[in-house]
Amino acid sequence: MRAIILSAGRGSRLGDITRDRPKCLLEFAGRTLLDWQIDALNAAGIEDIVVIVGFGAKRVIRAIEARSSVRVMYNPFFQVADNLASLWLAREEMDRDFLILNGDTLVSPDIVATAIREGRAPVNVTITHKTSYDADDMKVTLDGDIVTAVGKRLAVDRTHAESIGLLTFRGCGPTMFRQAVELALADPSGVENWYLSVVDALARQIEVGTVVVDGMPSAEVDYPADLPIAEALAASWRAVLAKSA
After folding, report:
1. How many C-beta atoms surround the C-beta of residue 94 within 10 A?
2. N or C, fewer C-beta in 10 Å, the chain?
3. Rounded to whole angstroms, how far apart are CA atoms 84 and 168?
4. pLDDT for 52-66, tens place per residue?
5. How far is CA 186 from CA 41, 95, 183, in A?
6. Residue 180 φ then ψ, to 5°
7. What residue ranges of the chain have pLDDT lower than 50?
8. 28-52: string of b/e by CB count within 10 Å (b at 16+)?
């Protein structure tokens, strides 16, 4: 399986900390967010990784140039387009089973392995359940374990879970997703959309399954309040690695 990491954005909601440093190069427990992501993918057996860069591209490329399992693609439209445009640029990479990982999401190797092992539908959204959901959560509507809608603006009574930012595509899924991405970008408004808007549309056409990772550690790095949470999570992983060394 191939992995595509979406790391083109700056992370402006983090304020001055990302003024001249890409969000993916923020350090947690002594290593960059991107390093933690690549290691999690490698540990789960993925050795074909495409990182889509934009803001601070040269710094990101220098930071990972020694990684033999990683290739880099540059999105020159990162300042004026959302992440759907990044995936349009990477559409030629969707010629096999693959996964997408948001560039601001820390995940454990166990989450990646679970997503690969249990995601058997054409498209699979990795989800968690919470007692409440806020305006920034990528909300998911379910019919059993099948996704019927996904988006930030879903009504409370239609929200059953949250996408953590890791999706897998299998079988006909890669082709269907690629075609949907191309169709979405054929409309000028497509550059303003998240790629999960395409998944939302696909949920009306094909099976979009779920992989539940409740209780498995992950962290989204989006706001200053997220930083200590991500630091604590990475520190716990570093402690485990030190014990096993």
Report:
1. 21
2. C
3. 16
4. 999 999 999 999 999
5. 32, 20, 5
6. -70, -40
7. none
8. bbeebbbbbbbebbbebebeebbbb
Q: Hey, what amino acid is at 234?
A: A
Give Cα 97 distance to the centre of its chain: 16
Q: What is the DSSP string of 15-37?
A: GGGGSSS-GGG-EETTEEHHHHH
What interhelical angle do 33-43 and 226-244 show, nearest 10?
A: 50
| Cβ-based burial of 58 (10 A; exposed 0-12, middle 13-18, buried ≥19) | exposed
CA 114, 116, 121, 126 dihedral sign is: positive
* pLDDT value of position 228: 96
Evaluated on CA atoms 88, 93, 99, 104, the torsion sign reads negative
- Tokens coding 172: 């006909």
Instruction: Look up residue 113 and give its two tokens.
Output: 């392995």
Token pair 């191309």 in the structure block, residue: 182
Q: How many CA atoms lie within 13 A of 223 on its CB side?
A: 3
- Are 161 and 107 in contact by the 8 Å Cβ rule? The answer is no
pTM of the full predicted structure? 0.94
